[in-house]
What we know:
This protein has a single domain, classed as Jelly Rolls, CATH 2.60.120.620. Helix content is 16%, strand content 27%. It is built from five helices and 15 strands. The strands form five sheets. Strands 1-11-4-13-2-15 form a six-stranded antiparallel sheet. Strands 10-5-12 form a three-stranded antiparallel sheet, with no helix packed on it. The longest helix is centred in the first third of the chain and has 12 residues, at 29-40. The protein is globular. The structure holds 2-oxoglutaric acid. The site of 2-oxoglutaric acid has 12 residues, from strand 4, strand 12 and strand 13.
Amino acid sequence: xxxxxxxxxxxxxxxxxxxxxxxxxxxxxKELLAFLKHESQPKPESMKKGLRSHTADPMWxxxxxxxxxxxxxxxxxxxxPRIVQTMYLxxxxxxxxGEGGGRGIALHQDTxxxxxxxNTLMACWIALNDTSPDNGGFCTVPGxxxxxxxxxxxxxxxxxxxxxxxxxxxxxxxxxxxxxxxxFQIENLNxxxxxxxxxxxxxxxFFTGMTIHGSFANRSTRPRLAFAVHYLxxxxxxxxxxxxxxxxxxxxxxxxxxxxx
Length: 261
Ligand SMILES: O=C(O)CCC(=O)C(=O)O
């Protein structure tokens, strides 16, 4: 299977040195409109599978195995991608005073949430409307993927969502244990290192599972709409049991499904 967009050696080098890569126009206007129409309609319960909705919702499956999105993941992973999880990240607008907008996700490394063996975790974050710092757009810390997993504590910032969950973990040999996960906030992160990106509608950021990223609250009167897919290399083992049944992308999707009506 061949991806439509072929990365240049410079783009691969950029990804390797910064830990992320912005790729313009991975989705067409027709695809964006179809996805947003789909999300605006009530859906049958059978399509709602939380982080694994790509296994039940044809539109989510289409995006996560898309020839540009999974196609670029295949090039960056140097192997077949497995879909781990999918998320529609819709942040509500703020009022005219800039209050009440959807909160952000504390800056973190995805490997804290989704450890794998060997660690090949990566993600694609696609802007479904124009995103920028004012509407709670995507942020990264260039080069942050080169160190170890950073020390964290549970988020303490008002701007960011807070949660805590216990997860069942299982290794390749069937050994099981429970692990607490919470809204990880990197300790002692210098604000000056954070790059606040402007990603136009239809463009995407690909980043490694070690790259520090996240977002802040939406202070604009526009929503901030994004779709994220997390992938692993086909030979990696995901430790978190709730998303352990990953979906191997053996063919890229090319036929846009009809939105639910
Ligand atoms: O959209 C955001 O605010 C952050 C998304 C994120 O953390 C992710 O896709 O891993």
